[in-house]
Design a protein that fits this description.
It is built from 16 helices and 20 strands. The strands form 3 sheets. The chain has a 9-stranded mixed sheet, covered by helices on one side. The protein has a 6-stranded mixed sheet with strand order 15-16-20-17-18-19, sandwiched between helices. Strands 3-2-1-4-5 form a 5-stranded parallel sheet, with helices on both faces. The longest helix is centred in the first third of the chain and has 14 residues. The chain is globular and about 70 Å long. The N and C termini lie far apart (58 Å). 47% of the residues are buried.
């Protein structure tokens, strides 16, 4: 009997609570019902808001607890938390104390997946690096299953996987919290302040990231960023292969950039992989993403596979995505940029100053170092302050005004209380040859469900101009 079959058998007749009907938990509910579990769904949305989802699951016998008190009286043999919920949320702590086993769709997948798992986490670049990893492996002929925090739950796909396949998953800090298993190959792109509106402090956030490798077994692989200060303290378990990637310096084992050339080093001896200029998508941060993915896939693919993907891969939606060129103005959607470090990386990808749209949900992370970057790379700053009770616009503006390199004659600042007005204001200010970049340096939850909805709204407005 496979590990997946044992999981299904263990759910039969059990009382199972699923928190949140989101992307990851929708197929989970069907899986649990097929296994014979008694399922209760807890969701903040009302029955009317859930609509057809409620009707369909209710017809199958699912019980519901919805509305503002959806976390009241949590119980069950097993509780599957939604990925964005802190595992030490008081209602979960109480349920755990009363004997419930708290888990998640991703944790179960990690335990029952029949093929090797290549997992990527980090504060910046993890989605692009995850996608690149899958593209390189597919180019080499592997059957890849791409998912996790990148948007696709994989647990229901396990019956279709073989031992020869490879699962490539993006893992968020929330998914990694309390995770007791680690993948065959793990990568941390970098660790900078993020999600401090949910994590109690930076130390907890860092600890969550380390869960991607602390339980690795001998023979596994760990890839770290040699240029990232936090990662320098990460130590793999005995017998785990450690590789580094670096934009700044040669490494003994791993991949590094020197004089525009990307090299692979093994015990100090190096081989050329390609010129950095061969990478189709723009930005120094994407060179780093390629080097990270090359480290992670090394031993499974050839350098030719890496080069072919570099020549053809056009990028991931909502990541420096060129939406259109209108009257000589290029419009880029970088909605994935939910932190100042991500937006800073996007700004550095262009060789001219841009018109920047920024602002959104406050994740309680500092913007002190963001202002000087804006002053160096932005000609006009359009701040989106659509939700005054939850907005980073004031912090971003303050960081710019406090920057030593701020010149009010060189950088105009406009503030809008409406997203569409902000986009149209940027368009009105743009001239032939300009770049308009929507890269908010903030999460989207001030007025949008997620960064995808924000990016799609931006694209709709731009295409209507």
């Amino acid at each position: 009997m496979s590990a997946f079959d044992r999981f299904l058998e263990s759910m039969s007749g059990k009382s199972v609570t699923v928190i949140g009907i989101g992307v990851s938990n929708t197929p989970l509910n069907s899986l649990l019902l097929e296994a014979g579990a008694n399922v209760t769904v807890h969701d903040r949305k009302s029955i009317d808001d859930l609509g057809e989802i409620y009707e369909g699951l209710a017809d199958l016998g699912v019980q519901f607890c919805v509305g503002n008190d959806y976390l009241k009286n949590l119980s069950g043999d097993y509780i599957f938390r939604t990925p964005g919920m802190h595992p030490n949320q008081p209602a979960l702590v109480k349920a755990r104390e009363q004997g419930s086993i708290i888990t998640s769709e991703m944790e179960v997948f990690m335990r029952v997946c029949p093929c090797p798992i290549f997992a990527i986490t980090g504060s910046d670049g993890k989605t692009t690096t995850t996608t690149l990893t899958a593209e390189i492996l597919k180019k080499a002929g592997y059957a890849c299953h791409l998912g996790g925090n990148i948007g696709r739950p994989l647990l229901a796909d396990v019956p279709f996987m073989t031992e020869q396949d490879i699962a490539v998953v993006e893992l968020s800090s929330f998914q990694l919290m309390n995770m007791q298993c680690s993948p065959a190959a793990a990568l941390v792109t970098n660790v900078t302040p993020n999600h401090l509106d949910v994590h109690k402090d930076m130390a907890e956030y860092i600890e969550a990231k380390t869960n991607i490798f602390v339980n690795q077994k001998p023979g596994a692989k760990l890839v770290l960023n040699a240029d990232d200060a936090v990662s320098q303290d990460f130590k793999p378990a005995d017998g785990v292969e450690l590789l580094y990637f670096s934009m700044k310096q040669p490494v003994e084992n791993g991949v590094y950039l020197q004089d525009g050339v990307i090299w692979y080093a093994e015990d100090g001896n190096r081989r050329k992989i390609m010129d950095a200029s061969e990478i189709r998508i723009p930005g120094a941060h994407n060179i780093a993403n390629y080097m990270a993915a090359t480290c992670l896939t090394h031993g499974k693919v050839s350098f030719e596979d890496v080069r072919e993907v570099a020549h053809t891969f056009g990028g991931v939606e909502h990541r420096l995505e060129l939406v259109r060129t209108l009257n000589g103005v290029r419009y880029y959607n970088d909605s994935i940029a939910s932190s100042p470090t991500r937006t800073a990386a996007g700004l550095r990808a262009f060789d001219q100053k841009v018109i920047l749209l920024a602002g959104g949900h406050d994740k309680k992370i500092p913007y002190d170092s963001f202002g000087p970057v804006v002053c160096d790379h932005v000609k006009r700053l359009i701040l989106i302050d659509a939700n005054p009770d939850d907005s980073t616009a004031p912090a971003i503006k303050a960081s710019v005004l406090a920057a030593e390199n701020y010149d009010p004659n060189a950088l105009m600042i406009d503030t809008y209380d409406d997203f569409e007005k902000a986009v149209k204001g940027a368009a009105a200010a743009a001239e032939d040859g300009d770049i308009v970049l929507m890269s908010p340096a903030s999460a989207s939850f001030d007025i949008f469900k997620n960064f995808m909805e924000r990016g799609n709204r931006f694209k709709d407005i731009v295409r209507s101009l």
